[in-house]
Specification:
Elements (H helix, E strand, L loop, with lengths): L8 H7 L6 E4 L3 E5 L9 E5 L11 H22 L3 E5 L15 E6 L16 H20 L1
Antiparallel strand pairs: 1-2, 2-3, 3-5, 4-5
This protein binds adenosine monophosphate (AMP).
Length: 146
């Protein structure tokens, strides 16, 4: 079994074997409060489909998440009074992913609490950009043909 199908604690939450503070649920999506919040209202939105990383999700699961994510963001904002927030989605342990089941963090931003980001922008190199686009367009075309 590859890593994309290994069970995690989130499967147990989906199955109701471990309790959670449920924010939202439908056939394909579950949202619940993060047990280690960066700020009050920190919420996780997960597909019920068991996949480790975003790029492994089926179109149906991805669409189901996309449909409700803004709604859940609105609920988080209304419930907390926050006017700013981050949506964070980590893929891979070197990218700070601890639970290997796709999840989107909705993290309200307050003056003191919320996500801190270290962001060091570079400069887009034109030659590199051209080469990247060629490879990315080819990858998208191959994916479309699958
Ligand atoms: P990540 O680093 O993106 O994989 O984040 C995983 C998140 O899952 C962390 O913010 C944890 O606090 C959260 N988490 C882990 N176990 C639980 C749980 N049982 N209930 C709610 N949140 C959890």
């Amino acid at each position: 079994m590859d890593q994309s199908h290994q069970a995690t604690i989130f499967d147990k939450i989906i199955a109701g074997e471990i309790p959670c503070h449920r924010v939202y649920e439908d056939d394909r999506v579950l949202a619940f409060l993060d047990i280690g919040p960066l700020s009050p209202g920190h919420t996780l939105v997960i597909p019920k489909e068991r996949k480790a990383h975003l790029h492994q999700l089926s179109d149906d699961a991805a669409a189901a998440i996309g449909r409700v994510l803004p709604r859940i963001c609105r609920a988080v904002l209304q419930a907390t009074g926050a006017t700013a927030y981050n949506v964070l989605q980590n893929n891979g342990s070197s990218a700070h992913q601890l639970v290997m089941h796709v999840h989107f963090h909705i993290i309200p931003k307050f003056e003191r609490d919320g996500l801190g980001i270290g962001w060091k922008p570079g400069k887009l190199d034109q030659t590199q950009a051209k080469a990247l686009l060629t490879r990315m367009h080819a990858a998208l075309e191959a994916d479309r043909a699958r």
